[in-house]
Structures are given as C-alpha cells and as structure tokens.
Amino acid sequence: MAIAFNSRQILNKRRHSVHPLHRLLDYGHQYRKQIWLAIGCSILNKLFDLAPPGLIGVAVDVVVKQQDSIIAQLGVKDVFGQFLILSLLTAIIWILESVFEYAYSKLWRNLAQNIQHNLRLDAYNHLQDLELVYFEERSTGGLMSILSDDINQLERFLDVGANDIIQVATTVIIIGGAFFILAPSVAWMAMSPMPFILWGSFAFQKLLAPRYADVREKVGYLNGRLVNNLSGITTIKSFTAEDYESYRLAQDSEAYKKSNSKAIKLSAAFVPLIRMLILVGFTALLLYGGMAAVAGKMTVGTYSVLVFLIQRLLWPLTRLGDTFDQYQRAMASTKRVMNLLDTPLTIHPGNVALPVDKVRGEVEFKNVTFAYKDRFAVITNLSLQIPAGKTIAIVGSTGSGKSTLVKLLLRFYEVETGKITVDGINIQDLNLRDLRRCIGLVSQDVFLFHGTVAENIAYGTFAATQEEIITAANVAEAHEFIENLPQGYETIVGERGQKLSGGQRQRIAIARAVLKNPPILILDEATSAVDNETEAAIQRSLEKITVNRTTIAIAHRLSTIRNADCIYVMEYGQLVESGTHEELLEKNGVYASLWRVQSGLT
Predict the structure, then answer these.
(1) Would you tell me the Gene Ontology cellular component terms (predicted)?
(2) Reduced to 3 states, what is the DSSP secondary structure of residue 392?
(3) How far apart are CA 477 and CA 538, in angstroms?
(4) What residue numbers bound the domain in which 523 lies?
C-alpha cells in the first residue's frame, strides 16, 4: 500500500513538472484532427493576407516598366490586360482569405467550446469521486473558481490567442524568407530586431507566469468569500455583520487587485519596448532600402513590397504582448484545472456487485478504529452487530462518534483498522454505487436542491411516477402541506429549500428515502430540529417505513428511540452500554442518567 502511495506521489510530481501546454495538448488528443485543421486554416489565411503587398509591388512594376514588367515577360504586353490579371488575382486572393478566416474562426471557437465543455465535465465528475476529506480542506469558492473562471480563461485563449500565435509565426517565416530572396543586402537590417523581440517575449513569459499563478490563487480566495457569504446571508443579517463582511470582502478584492496590478505593470511594458525594437528595423529598411532603389540596386516595385512587408512583419509583433498575456493567464488556469484532474482517488470503487433486491441488511462493525486527518481517534476498536430487519438506536453525548459511524458505513471515509460488513461482505470490496444505493440517509441537515417539491422527492429515484411521488409523500405525512403550497408538487422550494420550514424540509427528505425504498435506512438526528407536533408526525411516518427494514437511528432525543430493538450508548468513540430501553434504565448507567435529564426527573 505504501509503495502504491509513493508511486502516485512520484507520478503526480512528474505531472506537475510538465508544462501546462503539454498537459493541455495531451488532454485534447481526441481533437487533434480539428486542431490541425484549425492550424492549417490559420496559416492559409495568413498566406493570402500577406499576398496583397506583393500584388502592389507588381502593380508598381507595371506602372514603371509597362511592356517590360514581370507580367509582360509572361506574354501579356497590353497594360490594361496586365492590370486586369492583377485585379482578378486580387479578387481571388481576397475571397480565399475571407474563406479561410471564416474557417479558422469557426474551427478555433468550436474547439474552445468542446474542450471547455469536456474539461468542465471531467473536472466536475472527478470532484464527485473524491473523498470528503478533499472538500474539507478546500473552499467551495476556490473549487468554483476552477470549474468556472479558470476553464473560461482557457476558452478565451483558444478563441483568439492560439490563432494569433500561429499567424505571427507564419508571418515571421514567410516575410523573413521573402526578404532574403528579394533583397538579401538589406534583409539583415530589417530582421535584426527579431532575435531581441523573441528573446524579450520569452523573458516576459517567464516573468509573468508566477504573477498570473498568484492572480488565479487570489481570485479563488475572492470567490470563496463570495460563495460563503451568499450561503450565509441569513446569519450575516441576523448578526448585523454586513459592514464586517464588506470589509473582509474588500480586503480579498484588494489583494486580487494588487496581484493583478503586479502582472499588469509588467505586461503593459511589453508593447512599448517592442515598438522601440521595431523602429530600428523599419528605419533601417526605409533608409538603406530607399538608397539602394535610388542607386538602381533594387527595383522600385521590390522596394515598395519590402516597405509594406516590413510593417506586416513587425507591427503585428506588438500584439504579442496581449497574446502572451492571454497565454499566461490560460496556462495558469490550465495548471489549476489539470492539478485537480491529477488529484488521486483514494477510495477504491470496489468490484463486488450488490443488487439492491438481494440485500438482507445485516450490518456489522468489527474492531473499527478511525480518526479524522490530524486529529485523535474518534472511533476506537468498536464492534457492533445490527441484525437484518431490526431497528437499533445509537445515542451518546455530542462528539461521541455517532454520526461518524454513518459516514464510515457509507464510505465517505475509510476505516483505519478493522472492517465493516453488509451481509457478511466487506464494504471495501463492494461496488461503491451498489453500497450507497442500498442505504437511505435522512440527516438533520436536510439539503434540498433548487427545483420543485416533486423533483426533490424523486431525487435519486429519477424515473418515479407522479403517483409514486404522492404515495411516498403520504407515507412521510407530507402530502397535506404540499397540497397547500401555491403550486402543490410543482412549487419551487428555493436554494437549499429556504422557502420551506425545517419540519417541511425534513418530511420531504423522509419522502425521498421512502421513494428510494432502501433495505437499510439511517436516521441521523432526523427530528432534532423540529417542533413537537412535527416530531410526532415524523415519528408516525417512521414507524411505517422501518417495518421489516434494517434501521439505524442516531438520536439525541431519547423519546424517539425508546421502542428500538436495541439501543447502543457511545462515549468517546466506544460502546459503553447496550440493551432495550427498559434494560438500560435498570442498569442505572449513562443511558439512565441521560433519560432522567431529558424527562425532567433530576
């Protein structure tokens, strides 16, 4: 196990040392054909875009030499005919340039959308498969920043920046070659700034990379603050903490602004510096090329072509600043997304099938020990047997480890030592989805999704009919209040079910569990946050759904579990007592003491 873990560490280290662009290209291997098509269209577009200066040079040659021009040497002596040919060539070149501009624009944008779509889905699906520890150590806003802002940043680069880089490279190669063919004597003057421009571009890239990595980190903190505050807006208002939260948000926003300012200060200097280098090449050609044309060492047409081409070569390089700016932002974002995808899955999915209709529901904890990361053991050498079809209760003081048992049974966390079995099979060997399908959980912290009441009841049982949904609601004693809602079962419950009361949310959660019809039902403090009337209604519904079903009830209110087949009492991660309600009262131990406190007998 240690060897496998070390191997994963080495593999992740190697992945993190690979350049983000290489990792992105590896990820997009399925789009190689589309990438090559897009690159081809970008190159062809630039070739036709660079042709007009050549045509201008030929036109000047026709004006100056007429019957001795380049076209005349091909057999067309008539000047009008020569200009007619030039006009036809111009029309063809412009049409082809437009066609390939449309093609590359469509290809790059569709590629950006496809990669963005798949990358977001892959990243989200990978997140869903990670253990809960991963989420406990990270903010929701930071993860949202990766799934949304970082992936959008990559899309913006693929939309425009990739094409710009390819076209600049094409321009340098084509025009550089043309210079050395047409006027080798002055070509070196025009091309002399190029090495410095390229060196400067790569130097700026290296300097910008850590700055944009810091920008992405700061925006993650900022998004985390926003998500956290919007989720807790009720608490903020109730404690009149609006000014305090505004101050904290201003601090995070200021940190993001300063981080961006550092990057902007450097990236903004790129274009002015490049312009100074361009000035050297352009002036050299203008002066020495002009003198060569006057001296007859170069034709007027060639000189005209070179003057146009030098601008087409050097001025686009000023856009490298914006392009590299986009590129560095995209690479910083790509690194964060790829690091998320490279996060190893520590929970084994299991390979033993467990059909729900075959589950008897016998659960056993055998010498289980567990501790949360960097904390003392919460469960210590605990053994507990739950017969199939029986209702057992687990009680104890806060922090005794009751809810942790539920998380271990659902494999939200893995046990450190010992094992948990369902129908005699180690749950680590069971297919993880099969295990969780056979367990229904109703917790004290009910989460309802933004949508209708019916959608929330049918969550997890998505093929349920309206009749089945209503039947489940009746069992949970929720049908009556649902019918009284403005749109009945089609009423929108709001984010996290905020439009409903705590008791209403709890009964919808029970209806959801009823509809799922699991062989094993877990009730984790299911009535802890409701009033007495709602508790009585919930208790009536629970009595119906626990019949002939393995039920684990974790409770703080002892009155709700007094009829359980067996009650286990936990203290400090260990079982200290067990028995029926009457047996535990006779023992006059921890349970009896808790009962007297709650029933007002002390």
Answers:
(1) plasma membrane
(2) strand
(3) 7
(4) 356-438+518-599
